[in-house]
Amino acid sequence: MKILYTAAHGGFAAERVPLGGGAAVFEMLRAEWPDVVPIVPEAMTGRQLVTYSEMEYAAFCRKFEAESTAAVLRYEPKECVVLVNDISEGPDFARLAAAGYRVFTIFHVDVVAYVAAIYGRGWVAPETLVRWHRRWERLCPDVLQLVFQKQRDCVRYSEACIVPSPEMREVIHRCYGREVRVEVLPWGTPSATHTSMRTPAEKKLTLLTLSRISPEKNQHLLLEALLAWEQQGLLPSMRLRLCGQPAFMKGREYFAKLQELAGRLRQVEVEFPGHVTGQAKADQFAEADLYVFPSSHESYGLTLMEAFAAGLPALTLDHAGARSLMRAEFGRMASADSFLPALQELTRDRARLREMGRAAQAYALARPFAETAQQLRALLHR
To answer: What one-character-per-residue DSSP string does 77-105 give?
Structure first.
């Protein structure tokens, strides 16, 4: 039984571009499953992809929908199973189901819940947006159909939806009904291909963030907290490394905002190392004291698990991904209002930070990604 794996963000590993967790999972599953048949975009680069505007990205979604559907249809339905890595960028779910294909879809992001959280600022529940779309569907532009109609088709025509947290399952059931089959498979910890020895405690405490630079990643919250702390006159000398590069919509404008905020700090040495991978990423983890994960919306948190595996405690915002991973013994979850007090508490005692890091590492290493890959493969062949 062949596994056909469609991934709009797949196939760009050699380019070292910040495509996000979906692309990382695709590459890790390919490493675990050497016999998988990847279906990825043709005649384009990852660097093009991360510079698209909203409308350009919508056009890319429709193009890859057609390409991936046509690629799947070349195989006999009885000889394969289709694993879809995307929703808005996914194939034509209805057409594949009508042709007899078994389709499973990974929810790296619940797109409707993302729109509710980021664009709706949490004021409107995802299930409310789904009801509104059903009522006004004929009037919606195509960019909204890629959010609402594609996700509805995905849920309707997939044999199962695969999510990394129980909270995501609950949101899908609220939006589309309890009869939808949703399998919860937390991704676990990526395999470490590079290691670096933890450095001795230095004079300057070091904070680390690692994600693409984009408004939903919320790095400005950390910089604003440090500015407020500095104004209190109590901020110790420290270093902040904001790893990542601008990507996707509004990334460049947001990067300029971060640089402006960083330039106002006087007691914090702020560095922008860019997008780091491999040994460079391992070295960043090794030199840090605390991993800060201020993203406002995350389905899971692969870099959070990587930080844990490297022996770092963490400070995160309270969201679905953090709630499924964080424990009090190795970090804190905070709201925007309590972010600065939580940061001050964690950085007060570096010996305590190291103790929390050991607890985080034990937790992460007990949950390898390879075990989840085996569970997912068993599900596809069941």
So the answer is: GGGEEEEES-STTS--HHHHHHTT--EEE
Can you give the residue ranges of every domain in the chain?
2-188+368-381, 205-365
Spatial separation of the C-alpha atoms in residues 210 and 212, rounded to whole Å: 7
pLDDT digits (tens, 9 = 90+) for 51-107: 898 899 999 999 999 999 999 999 999 999 999 999 999 999 999 999 999 999 999
Q: Pseudo-torsion of CA 309, 240, 255, 224, nearest 10°?
A: 110
Considering Cα of 126, then 130, then 131, then 133, what sign does the dihedral take?
positive
Given the candidates 3.40.50.620, 3.40.50.2000, 3.20.20.70, 3.90.550.10, the CATH classification of the domain at 2-188+368-381 is 3.40.50.2000
Under the banding of pLDDT at 50, 70 and 90, the label for residue 202 is low
pLDDT at 189 over 80: yes
112 CB-near residues (< 8 Å, 6+ apart):
126, 129, 130, 147, 148, 151, 175
205-365 CATH fold: Rossmann fold (3.40.50)
200: pLDDT strictly greater than 60: no
* ∠ Cα 284 11 37 (to 5°): 130
Q: pLDDT (tens digit, 9 = 90+) per residue, 273-302? A: 999 998 999 999 999 999 999 998 888 889
| Contact criterion met (CB below 8 Å) for 310 and 330 | no
User: What pLDDT score does 201 carry?
Assistant: 55
Domains 2-188+368-381 and 205-365 share a fold: yes
